[in-house]
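Thread amino acids onto this structure.
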């Protein structure tokens, strides 16, 4: 197993001992009636193997972005455990990354896991050129030789099918679709094992979306990383993923093979989602 998320929760607010048990899809709410806290993610467990592609769907506010941020360690979980391949204690046993020292977490974030955000301003440094952004990540992953950094950055510019002559241009000189391509180049330039994508194409033209999603799929097949992609669009989930996770009110309402879920959704909420695209 590459990633193992066990019973992870994130509560925004003061929180009380009833928050988790009084919220979720079965209570049809994410706000605790006792203390008013928002239970953004409620006791979620999921795992990803090497090479596997997971998709997360669910209505706005269901906790999809929060779940990705918890995995990427952008935010700290209120409770639960997260295991990542290779992160072990001194006896070689899997170690909960929530209890690892900052240096271990920082290594995971700068090398093994990458995040691609819907908003390129969160994923790119707009004060650095395209090449500078990619170089920053290559250096963060441990490379120090200038020639290697430069040639790797050029290689990733090529991989996202962009003219290498644009390597010294700044993010604001690129279109929205190109900015997402540069985010992809940057994210992949550390050769991560897990790529996290939070609605990477929402807001782009449909034709641009399709090209970027095809590019992501191609790169995944070439490089063989695992992926968790959040999308509103069941078409994207169908096209890209092996496993689907359906969330509502912070809880997981359905989790399984994408083909099975789209063909024979079990939960009424998933049935509604699926019927809306037929
Ligand atoms: N920093 C925060 N402080 C307080 N509440 C937050 C914070 N971040 C998220 N929330 C709340 O957590 C819940 C889940 O938010 P999240 O952004 O994860 O939803 P989402 O499924 O990604 O929605 P969308 O599809 O609109 O992006 C929401 O009710 C949101 O208001
Ligand atoms: Mg979101
Ligand atoms: Zn509460």
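Threaded sequence (278 positions):
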């Amino acid at each position: 197993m590459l990633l193992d998320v066990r019973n992870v929760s994130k509560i925004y607010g003061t929180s009380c001992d009833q928050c988790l048990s009084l919220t979720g899809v079965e209570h049809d709410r994410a706000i605790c009636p006792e203390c008013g806290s928002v239970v953004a993610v409620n006791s979620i467990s999921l795992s990803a193997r090497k090479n596997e592609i997971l998709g997360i769907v669910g209505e706005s506010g269901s906790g999809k972005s929060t779940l990705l941020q918890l995995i990427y360690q952008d935010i700290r979980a209120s409770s639960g455990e997260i295991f990542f391949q290779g992160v072990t204690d001194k006896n070689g046993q899997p170690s909960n990354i929530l209890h690892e020292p900052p240096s271990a977490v920082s290594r995971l974030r700068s090398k093994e896991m990458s995040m691609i955000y819907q908003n390129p301003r969160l994923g790119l440094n707009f004060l650095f050129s395209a090449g500078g952004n990619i170089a920053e990540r290559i250096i963060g992953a441990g490379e120090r030789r200038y020639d290697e950094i430069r040639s790797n950055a050029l290689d990733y510019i090529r991989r996202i099918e962009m003219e290498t002559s644009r390597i010294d241009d700044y993010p604001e000189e690129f279109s929205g679709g190109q900015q997402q391509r540069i985010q992809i180049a940057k994210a992949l330039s550390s050769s991560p094992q897990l790529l996290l994508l939070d609605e990477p194409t929402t807001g782009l033209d449909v034709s641009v979306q399709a090209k970027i999603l095809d590019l992501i799929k191609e790169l995944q097949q070439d490089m063989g990383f695992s992926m968790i992609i959040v999308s509103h669009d069941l078409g994207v989930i169908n096209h890209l993923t092996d496993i689907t996770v359906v969330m509502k009110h912070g809880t997981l309402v359905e989790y399984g093979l994408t083909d099975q879920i789209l063909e024979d959704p079990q939960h009424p909420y998933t049935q509604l989602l699926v019927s809306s695209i037929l």
